[in-house]
Amino acid sequence: MDMIIDQMLKSYNTQTLYDKKNAMKEVMQELVLCGLSRAGFFKNAAFYGGTALRIFYGLDRFSEDLDFSLTIVDKDFDLKEYFPTLEKEIRAYGLNMIISEKKKTRERQILSAFLKGNTKEHLLIFYADNDTGKGVSANETVRIKFEVDINPPPFATFEHKYRLLPIPYEVKLYDMPSLFAGKIHAVICRNWQNRVKGRDLYDYIFYLARQSEVNQKHLRERLLQSGHITEDIAFSLEEIKEMLYRRFDFIDFGQAKIDVEPFIRDTSVLNVWSADFFKQITEGLKTV
Prior knowledge:
Layout: H1 3-9, H2 17-38, E1 45-48, H3 50-57, E2 66-70, H4 83-91, E3 98-101, E4 110-118, H5 119-127, E5 141-149, E6 158-163, E7 169-174, H6 176-189, H7 198-209, H8 216-225, H9 237-248, H10 253-260, H11 275-282
Parallel strand pairs: 2-5
Antiparallel strand pairs: 1-2, 3-4, 4-5, 6-7
Helix pairs in contact: 2-4, 6-7, 6-8, 7-10, 9-11
């Protein structure tokens, strides 16, 4: 095992195969971040979403994907430009991963790519324990998905943060109020269809528990862009709360709990989830 990977794994309590898979994916996510940073990606883009919240602000749940946004609109942005440097960085740690971009089927504002490798092969690289690979199909694939919004809503605000492993590197990311705006937009607007995304609700509590303010101007632009409000709406704090209250009335909290349970250790925190609970904690929402 690479010494740097071994050092990164020491921060994880891996008691089960599921724990080991998640730890492996999280380390891989940070290798991707480092590789993108060294490729100059953050000159044009910023990190946001659940994984950004976990790595830089201490969110205590596993987050599957890496989400990025350009800092200004660029419909001609070429994500593939960063692949050679990123792939070289990943392979420098002994990982046999391939990067591919998801093909466009129509004009989209989100570009997607996947870093893929064999799960069993990489578990053995990470843990060097033959027992680790037991019960894992020889064909199982580990995937690190990353997406870039090339048509970002304006008024997001950013900060720069640093990580020391695998080597010291810098990341530009949304600050907490802008991250919170994105999460409130997801809670209000995400098309959950038959799968309520309880992870959105879990993260929403995380922001409120830390008394984070919401970037109101950025939230308004997100809602305008997605067509959930119009220019004539008086977008006050009370209106934001009312939109959330209406959403909470229609959520199936049983399904929401099922969605988030695999991503957290202490599932007892979900016992209080109800429309009334979420409405009451929303009373403390603040904007900036």
